[in-house]
Design goal:
Distance between the termini: 36 Å
Shape: globular
Mean pLDDT: 84
Oligomer: single chain
Structural class: alpha+beta
Length: 214
Amino acid sequence: LTLGIGSKVIKASDVIFERLVKEGDTASEAFKAGKKAFEAAHETWLKEIDLVHVVKGEFEERAADGVFALKSGMHTVEGFDEFLALSRLSGKTYEVKEVTEFTLERIPEGGPILKKVFPNGVIQLQLPRDAFLNRIAYKQATIDVSSDVKRRGIKSLWPRSYSVESIAQISKDIVESNSALPNKAIIGNNNGIDIVIRADEFKKVTTSYPKWVE
């Protein structure tokens, strides 16, 4: 089962919402509101930006243990919240620890998710290896801090204050004002936040997230 492409990601949100309601979880209303906002934005911006990748992320149910694991994307707090819910519903609960810096190259399997919050609202995560679907997905989430220092399992999230619509509009505006070659990284800025964006040959945004800051 793959979650995160087209209608499948919306179906995943339905599953989360229904289970949360049955369990009497107070987060159910937040998921319901977020789901409606995403569906509306997804329809509006379908040809302009891959909101599934940027907002929700793409997941697969890992055959070995039945746990939903991250394949790519997930650059918003909403997506991270849904990842935690999907993981919990499939039998995996992560401890989330807030830190002021990442000091380890990698978080071992079974370890916590480290969360660093910047004054401007940007959030950086360092996830353990088992949060990712496979070695390829884990390798893609690697940051080179310097020539000989790496941080693995990294995800950078837009501030919670940015709506799905605003992320789409800002990303598209940056692409339209840039002449970079397809699939090359573009660095834009919004309110002092550096944004990394990639777009295809049709200028459709394929990813968008705050730039890594040590």
